[in-house]
Design a protein that fits this description.
Length: about 120
């Protein structure tokens, strides 16, 4: 494979509205992780070398964890993944036309963002 794909630093937890406030309090007050709000209204927490983002989603009935993968060539990487029959799911959350990346699902239906490190 010519296009290198490697782990990103962001982990997103998509949380139903009825569980969101309690989950924020859990990570902030019970666990004591350091919060940050660089992308408000989402709140993030330092999770070792990673960032754990808690995103409220009123359309969900249960929480999901979404992962991030980096690549230096998003078109090449997404083409490689398509050739391997990996499911694209870009409609799950709009990223904008100029965003250098996209959404995929692994065989267990875990959502992954595949993007260039400076895609935003």
């Amino acid at each position: 494979m010519a296009e290198k794909i490697y782990g990103g630093i962001n982990i997103a937890m998509k949380i139903p509205s009825h569980q969101y406030d309690a989950t924020v309090r859990f990570y902030r007050d019970v666990i004591g992780l350091k919060p940050f709000t660089a992308k408000a209204p989402a709140i993030g927490f330092e999770l070792g070398p990673n960032r754990l983002w808690l995103d409220e989603d009123p359309t969900m009935s249960q929480a999901e964890v979404w992962l991030e993968l980096f690549t230096d060539d998003h078109r090449g990487a997404l083409d490689h993944l398509a050739k391997a029959d990996v499911v694209r799911c870009d409609a799950i959350e709009p990223l904008g036309e100029d965003f250098r990346g996209g959404w995929i699902m692994n065989p267990a239906n875990i959502v992954h963002m595949v993007r260039e490190p400076d895609a935003w």
